[in-house]
Amino acid sequence: MTADEFRKYGRAVVDWVADYWDRVESLPVLSQVRPGQVREQLPDRAPELGEDFHAVLEDMDRIVVPGLTHWQHPGFFAYYPSNASGPAVLAELLTAGLNVQGMMWQTGPACTELEQHVLDWLGGLLGLSDRFLSTGDGGGVIQDTASSAILVALLAALHRASSGQVTREGVASGRFTVYTSVEGHSACEKAARIAGLGAAALRPIDTRADLSMDPDALRAAMKRDVAAGCIPAMVMATIGTTSTGAIDPVHRIGPVCEEFDAWLHVDAAHAGVAAICPELRWVHDGVNDFADSYATNPHKWLLTTFDCDACYVADRDALVGALSVLPEYLRNRASESRAVVDYRDWGVPLGRRFRALKLWSVIRWYGATGLRAHIRHHVALAQQFAEWVSGDCRFELMAPHPLSLVCFRLRGPDEVNRQLLEAINATGRIYLSHTKVRDAFTLRMAIGAISTRDRHVADAWRLICREATRLRTE
């Protein structure tokens, strides 16, 4: 592809994306294809001769778009949001065009230093203390997802808990345990498996009435393990659980971790970015005082395209000690000078994309004021929706809803709620997901799509009520 061809088709691609954003509301939010339907439309073999790029765009419309569930749809209220904004998408183009491999400072000085700097910016916006910034003993790094952040935190925790023995000899040298709430993300168990501890090392901790981790239950579990000869390696507290948005009391969990010398990782994948708003910074109570590591996902609620997890550590030595491997072919003067950071030592893969460009672009385009307005808008919509639910005697709220997630259900059996969810999603107008709260089938209304406005939430509530009425009268 020549430079002129790239310009020509590049403009066509930008136009296609912009047109897609303009028309996405007219599409069914949940894909209507049956299993295998997309592949049936694709040729059996790769083309022998090259094709014009317009053919790719034509097949985007004909094959790909009908096979998509549209995460940028204003009626997407399932799971948690995955925002794509203009500045982030344009920065992704810059990232792809440069195609920097930022494994070390030397292979991309600007890639490394911009990442350090933009994560310090974000840390300041979130109210993180200096101990998490690059100017101190800690610092931030962009991982792909919060799952990877949990894994590297666990590896650092094991390195510290064993004084480096696990890093040298493996986990067979001791019995280590990991703790998170029963509402904590499944990635914690996956991290325990990958780290070689096995799922049996994970201790699910009971929750309090508000579905947050019970610090007393945590202390009791850790005492039992110590008595049995185990070493508590890491506790994962959650700010905004996937199921209900519960916020663990880090300020009370932290002292328990200190008592047992356990690493405290705070998984704030969804809700952490809410702390950009000063009135919501309470979600981070205890983080600055007690957390050893912290992660939040700008690719969820902060207008940054997937994937971009902002992961911070208070002491980089444990992380680097756990992950650094230095073959001869990676040695260089800059690294040996210790004047630079080599991010190859801060994560699992050696290769690294220039992800900082998109976060940098988003923060510069929106500014702190625009980012706060984005968060506040969705929180206000969620509170309005919760008021409608609580004002209708047919429904009940199932969990606290301080941010942008509302968990609710029709009063009655689970089967009616399953039918309600299926009927709502079958319309193609909105998409909700579900969970179980205290064993009751519960609908989740997660507000956060970049295009969602007041009218979309009002329309969603009317649709929910209409389908509920239909089910009650059948």
From TrEMBL:
<dbReference type="InterPro" id="IPR015424">
    <property type="entry name" value="PyrdxlP-dep_Trfase"/>
</dbReference>
<dbReference type="GO" id="GO:0019752">
    <property type="term" value="P:carboxylic acid metabolic process"/>
</dbReference>
<dbReference type="GO" id="GO:0004058">
    <property type="term" value="F:aromatic-L-amino-acid decarboxylase activity"/>
</dbReference>
<keyword id="KW-0210">Decarboxylase</keyword>
<comment type="similarity">
    <text>Belongs to the group II decarboxylase family.</text>
</comment>
<dbReference type="GO" id="GO:0006520">
    <property type="term" value="P:amino acid metabolic process"/>
</dbReference>
<dbReference type="InterPro" id="IPR002129">
    <property type="entry name" value="PyrdxlP-dep_de-COase"/>
</dbReference>
<dbReference type="GO" id="GO:0030170">
    <property type="term" value="F:pyridoxal phosphate binding"/>
</dbReference>
<protein>
    <submittedName>
        <fullName>Aromatic-L-amino-acid decarboxylase</fullName>
    </submittedName>
</protein>
<keyword id="KW-0456">Lyase</keyword>
<keyword id="KW-0663">Pyridoxal phosphate</keyword>
<dbReference type="InterPro" id="IPR015422">
    <property type="entry name" value="PyrdxlP-dep_Trfase_small"/>
</dbReference>
<feature type="modified residue" description="N6-(pyridoxal phosphate)lysine">
    <location>
        <position position="300"/>
    </location>
</feature>
<dbReference type="InterPro" id="IPR015421">
    <property type="entry name" value="PyrdxlP-dep_Trfase_major"/>
</dbReference>
<dbReference type="GO" id="GO:0005737">
    <property type="term" value="C:cytoplasm"/>
</dbReference>
<dbReference type="Pfam" id="PF00282">
    <property type="entry name" value="Pyridoxal_deC"/>
</dbReference>
<dbReference type="InterPro" id="IPR010977">
    <property type="entry name" value="Aromatic_deC"/>
</dbReference>
